[in-house]
Design brief:
With about 240 residues, the chain is mainly alpha-helical. The chain contains eleven helices and two strands; from the N terminus they run αααααααααββαα. Among the domains are: about 5-70, lambda repressor-like DNA-binding domains (434 Repressor (Amino-terminal Domain), Orthogonal Bundle); about 170-240.
């Protein structure tokens, strides 16, 4: 797909995600709505107009191109061997997490206990594992898609279940910025599939919020969320089952 077409398609997606109409774009660019529709139809945007639309969206041109690339990236999961090597090294695992969250090289060195040389060595490992492409100036190009996920039952998920989630759920979630909701009920397979789709949509929306937040200059703090569902019955209720 040509880069121009990628930009046009990504602009359309971003406009839909943020609830902007062609009329809003027309007002921003000082053109008629019909002219905007024609521009999107032909893809004949000047760089200045693309920049103005990005400003309306709260995105940089680089962010737009990265989003377009991520959608076309072929890798949604790593192999068992790749995951195993990553999770076996705590420093590499942490750098992988930072990189997947698109944390810049300079920010990692500034905020965490890595010298430039130490961090570069970890990035070289990720380049060899084909998680990233290390580019000049210590820039990183992800070789995984925005919808990347760890393998179900794989080394990383096992680590998350055995260590991360145990610590995460130790909280009572009573703080002003915390939220916890749990509900269970007997439902049909059709409803179960509907819930699965709803969770996937919610996950995508949460990731879009995180992505848009990269442009924020406010104070940052660690945060995490979990969306999970499975056919399940509490073992403590098994004694009441007739069968």
């Amino acid at each position: 797909m040509g880069e121009r077409l990628q930009i046009v398609l990504e602009l359309k997606r971003a406009l839909r995600e943020r609830g902007h109409t062609y009329a809003a774009v027309a007002a921003k660019l000082g053109l008629s709505e019909a002219s905007i529709k024609r521009l999107f139809s032909t893809g004949d945007f000047s760089l200045q107009r693309v920049d103005e639309i990005c400003e309306l969206l709260g995105l940089g041109l680089g962010d737009l191109l990265e989003r377009a690339h991520d959608r076309d990236a072929p890798t949604n999961q790593l192999s068992l061997a790749q995951e195993g090597e990553i999770v076996a090294d705590a420093r590499l695992f942490f750098v992988t997490w930072l990189v997947l969250n698109r944390t810049p090289f300079e920010e990692i060195v500034r905020d965490y206990r890595f010298t430039e040389g130490e961090l570069l060595r970890q990035l070289i490992k990720l380049d060899r594992l084909q998680v990233i492409e290390l580019q000049p100036g210590n820039r990183v190009r992800l070789l995984v898609s925005r919808h990347f996920s760890w393998r179900a039952g794989g080394p990383v998920q096992k680590y998350i279940h055995e260590k991360v989630l145990r610590e995460f759920f130790a909280s009572h979630f009573t703080g002003a910025q915390e939220e916890f909701f749990f509900h269970g009920a007997p439902i049909s397979n059709e409803a179960l599939n509907q819930l699965k789709r709803a969770l996937r949509n919610a996950s995508r929306e949460c990731l879009e919020i995180i992505e848009r937040d990269r442009a924020s200059t406010g104070e940052r703090r660690g945060a995490a969320f979990v969306l999970a569902m499975r056919p399940w019955k509490y073992s403590g209720f098994a004694q009441f089952d007739r069968s």
